[in-house]
């Protein structure tokens, strides 16, 4: 497989602080990779290293088979879209789109062709003679994307481009960016802290923490089989439920809240017995029942019933832990109700409590 971007043992230190730690990343030709993580995890820093806006401490960066570790940003064959629109207020949309091309002394007819193509793809043709002050936030971001698009590069870098927009506009532009990638087929690396953006846009997601990629995988794999406790807790809204207990009976059962859950259907293989383990369950992989089912359910108490529109989120306590369960919106449960939680162990994740790695 040909790699559009390859990062090898990349390290970045700010003084005594290590921001990126011996990081490796390969992005395939035409792939959409999302860098996801909490604030301060190093995702924007990594993007700025790819763009050449930060000098790295050690390692190498390759783009389209060229070692660009010390190349200037303009020599890397990339187009970058920032969180801030950074448009020239005194110029029209047409002027903003063509400014960089004019500076590069490109022929006028080629500039006009590229501007017209970008305007058509992004549906901003009617806005070409307006100035940024006369545009909405979504329109300004389209122009910012268009400014990268006219450069006709192979690799696009997006640094949280939708974070300044309201929820409705974010949703609309998310679809536009996905459509743009499907139409162009360019390699795209996209930074966000919004997991919905990551799950809907990405071919693969790199979940980062403390300057290290914790897991790099397809969205469904990240969601269903998180590599460790951090990834499991970060992905999902609400996040994965965690039950602290022990693996008993030679690895055949998980003991929690006075009950034993049968682990024979666990998708991670046959775990060994351990005194401290954590069982992770998504809210949609638990059902609420009135009666117990040996080996499949645990007792719980309803705390809050929270209608969410399409369904309800029920919060419960069991064995000192708080859990959330998705239920049909028409099913209402009063606080204090004693119930039993039936678990789909085939969808569960089991973690070693010491290493926090998935078993």
From TrEMBL:
Into which family does the record put it? Belongs to the ABC transporter superfamily.
Alphabetically, the GO molecular function entries are: ATP binding
Protein's name according to its UniProt entry: Sn-glycerol-3-phosphate ABC transporter ATP-binding protein UgpC
SUPFAM superfamilies from the entry? MOP-like (SSF50331), P-loop containing nucleoside triphosphate hydrolases (SSF52540)
> What is the organism lineage in this UniProt record?
Bacteria, Pseudomonadati, Pseudomonadota, Alphaproteobacteria, Rhodobacterales
Which UniProt keywords are present, listed alphabetically? ATP-binding, Nucleotide-binding, Transport
The species is Fuscovulum ytuae
Q: Which residues form a coiled coil?
A: none
The UniProt record lists the ABC transporter domain at 5-235
